[in-house]
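Progress against Task 2.4 (sequence-to-structure conversion) is shown through the following example record, which the project officer requested during the mid-term review.
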Amino acid sequence: NISIDFPKTGFVSLLGPSGCGKTTLLNAISGLDKVKSGTIIVDNQEIRKYNFNKWDDIRTKKIGYIFQNYLLLSDLSVYQNLELVLKMLNVPNDKIEERIEYALKAVKMERFRKRKASQLSGGQMQRVAIARALVKSPRVIIADEPTGNLDETNTTQIMNILRKISRECLVILVTHEPRLANFYSDRIIKLADGKVIEDFENKNSNSFEF
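Structure tokens generated for the chain above:
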């Protein structure tokens, strides 16, 4: 019995303890999990039953994913990890270089473009994962505990990047850390036991300390 409207841009956090349903909800609204009932509308496309082809098209063209474990192809270079996404989208070759350069500059990883993913630190891999999501100019970026494996310094850097991106598209973050949600979010949706218990505009102006 959850009904949520998300804005076109901004930073929305799904906040709650482990096991409360955050990732399940995130996976449902982004087409990674099947839903048995209800309706999902993405960019005016209505999906009542799980349609693999329709979701595959939406995921490929409109949604960028950032996971806790990065999910980069370790034997490929940074450039090749991003290039693969654009080739799946049939982006013309003359535009691929332009898009990759833009995305890597946005996360300050342009000088590592030839380095293999396996040779990067955790923070660097997550930046590349953000660039991979960013490179296809998505309408929505889904971030599932993207700082869970990072230290405090890298956490701050990654969150700052996501906050900046949210000015141009919608960023939906799953986190169990109130300090991250309270400082970075425009809106916080709190979950417990599979239910939304609070949904509010976040006007917290406190500083972020670590």
